[in-house]
Amino acid sequence: MSDSVTLPFWLFVVILLFAAITALSHVFIPPVRWFLRRRLERAVARLNRRLVLPIEPFKLLRRQDTILRLSYDPAVIEAVQAHAAETGIREDVAHSTARSYAREIVPSFSASAYFGFATRAARWLSTRLFDVEVSRAEDAVIRSDATVVFVMNHRSNMDYVLVTYLAAERSALAYAVGEWARIWPLSRLLRAMGAYFIRRRSRNPLYRRVLARYVQMAVAGGVTQAIFPEGGLSLDGRVGAPKLGLLSYICDGYDPAAREIVFVPVSLNYDRVLEDNILLAAGREGTRRFRGSFPTATGFALRWLYRRLRGRVRKFGVAAVSFGAPIPLSDYGRDPDVPKLARDIMARIRSNVPVLAGPLVAAALLDGNQTRSEILEAVLARVAACEAAGHFVCLGGPADHAVERMLQMFVLRHMVRRTGEQVEATERGHRVLPFYAAAVPSGDAAPQYRPEDRET
User: Fold this and answer.
1) What is the pLDDT of residue 378?
2) What pLDDT, on the 0 to 100 scale, is given for residue 79?
3) Does position 329 have pLDDT exceeding 80, yes or no?
4) Where do you find CATH 3.40.1130 in the chain?
């Protein structure tokens, strides 16, 4: 027993390496993990004391635990059996496919990543690019034990950033993001922020069942949601028709005896949509294939940072958000009519879209006004009509200054030519200005804005 054993040096190193890994995994890592978990729980408890809608335990579950819970959910097991019978494959293979879908969908929320980085970055970017104005009408009515679903029109990719910043004092939002975001390292960051990934065009019944059950479990667990029912960015500047996918998942899992669900309509608008040319090109082609790319976005960001360092950067005008009055799902009974709910929500979103200087000036130009004074007069007339109808009007200052600022921006973007007082839309302007003018109310909407709800 005491005889010496001679080993090659490389084998001795391998044995030491495995021994160190075993010691780490069984002796050192568990207490470190426990210590970090306790710190996280205390940090979340402090966060919850200041949040209007606290972070629910479901959102803090370990990702692997959520994946297992989802993949062994009875409804998913039933879908696995149906998928196996339909395709002729073994049930264990079908269940492995369901688990891969669950791993693809489920986020790995990090409170420190969300509140330590994401909300601060969202605040910095939003306030550097735009003057942000807000109207709120929901706080006094929402119950603290209800699951809140923010339902928004999709005007720009800045929507994610802007609403994350504005909702930071209320809760952590869970977004549904499409295939565009499944790029490393962006995907890791978005998962840490609580975003879950969806295949928007998938017709696979097993995948859709796994996705539906995740959404229903998250809503039942009280996780605050943020969804874009249009299913994509607006290509013409108008609020589009809703797609019923996520709304139907939420309504199918609704149990009024367990937890109320409250939908908050959110209307967004911008003086400048950063990707307007890309959206218009996709609209002209009749597809949703966007020509934007990572190098294009990087070049835009670098040019903006260069101008900012030289003190020559300008804001892109106003970004405005209107939070409408909440819609409790219980108002639609135990078995909600999803199409009617979607129409009601979209009608409120459409009626509450903020009225901004950029769209107003675009509409005045398209109406044939050819001098600065004529444009100002047309804008003032529309502002008076919108305010009389109760719309949320945000010009970012006096009307004449707002009109001049927008005209300067349009000139810089080669959408308008100015010769003294004369103003004329260019060929490019005639392509782009209708995109902005489409956001001006037509007069048939019934807004819910009240001046006392306004914040800046």
Assistant:
1) 94
2) 95
3) yes
4) 51-269+318-352
pLDDT exceeds cutoff 60 at 179: yes
Secondary structure (DSSP) of 209-245 = HHHHHHHHHHHHTT--EEE-TTSS--SSSS--PPP-H
Strand partners, 270: 319
**pLDDT over 90, % of the chain:** 45
pLDDT, tens digit (0-9, with 9 covering 90-100), for 231-284: 888 999 999 999 988 999 999 989 888 889 999 999 999 999 988 888 998 888
**pLDDT value for 19:** 82
Which CATH number, 1.10.287.3510, 1.10.10.10, 3.40.640.10, 3.40.50.300, labels domain 356-440?
A: 1.10.10.10
Evaluate whether 55 touches 48 at the Cβ level (below 8 Å): yes
In the chain, residues under CATH classification 1.10.10.10 are 356-440
Q: What is the pLDDT of residue 450?
A: 45
**What gap in Å lies between CA 302 and CA 395, rounded to an integer?**
28
Report the run of H or E that residue 321 belongs to, with start and end.
strand 318-323
The correct CATH number of 51-269+318-352 out of 3.40.1130, 2.30.29, 2.60.40, 1.10.3470 is 3.40.1130
Q: State the Cα–Cα distance between residues 399 and 318, nearest whole angstrom.
A: 13
Tell me the CB-side half-sphere exposure of residue 107, using CA atoms within 13 A: 29
At residue 280, the 3 state secondary structure works out as: helix
CA distance readout (Å), 415 to 286, 356, 384, 430: 23, 18, 26, 8
Give Dmax (Cα) for the chain.
103
Measured distance CA(143)–CA(147) in Å, rounded: 9
Q: Would you give the distance in Å from CA 204 to the centre of its chain?
A: 25
| Residue 83 · residue 206 · CB < 8 Å | yes
Full 3-state SS string of 334-368: CCCCHHHHHHHHHHHHHHCCCEEHHHHHHHHHHCC
The residue-averaged pLDDT of 107-114 equals 83
Is the pLDDT reported for residue 456 higher than 60?
no
Whether 23 has a pLDDT exceeding 70, the answer reads: yes
* Residue 113 DSSP class: I
Rounded (10°) angle between helices 91-105 and 63-71: 140
